[in-house]
Input
Amino acid sequence: MKTITKKSEIKIHLESSLAIYHAGGLHACMASVHKTILSNKVKFPLLEYCGGEIYNVIPGDEQCTFCDLVQSLKTEGGNVISGIILQKRLTDDFNQSIEKATDFIAEAGIWYVCDIIGERVFGFALLNQPQRTLPLLKRLSNHHSHWVVRALGAGVHYAVKKGLNKEAVKAAFQILLSKAGVRNKEIRQGIGWAAKTTAKFHPKIVEHFKNKIDNQEKVANWFRKKITIGLSKNNYIEQLKLK
Output
């Protein structure tokens, strides 16, 4: 395994793989991507570039199949490529992209798939199409897979950090609150991450829900601790602004 850090180098491998696609089809292309890209250590921004270029070249009716092949290899970097392809496909087929992302996360059964795909698909969708995405996230918050619920936290974290509008943040925080009493470790990590980020960037929204947050029968201490950490980070940032 070698480390690839330059776009010029990854571009050579990617162009070769895409040429193989035109000559030999999807499976041949996937074999090349696996050998030259996914079997090496590649920085995430370069993998995101690959995902975008693959989306631009491979026709829409083969893109999900390509993602299926990527996910079957179970490489960490493959999640970045699949995540970006599905992200790009949100404008083509929103529901299918969300469903594919959900399936990949549920089937993988490991934390980094939740976070990588959750940010790039759920988070991007929430940031750019909040009215359409929020009802889906609310439904997925009751998904049978705790990995999917964790991924919602990663998505909300991403969207809030990137500037999600306040009304959507408020609605997303209510979804987080609905899971604030769970004991599952993975859900706690994902939901807690998003709660901390919300408190850091929107302390007034957290204050609005103070009574519900303080309800010890419905909200566990781990959730309140994440809120406290987020508020302290916000306070630190505000203090720096005054200096």
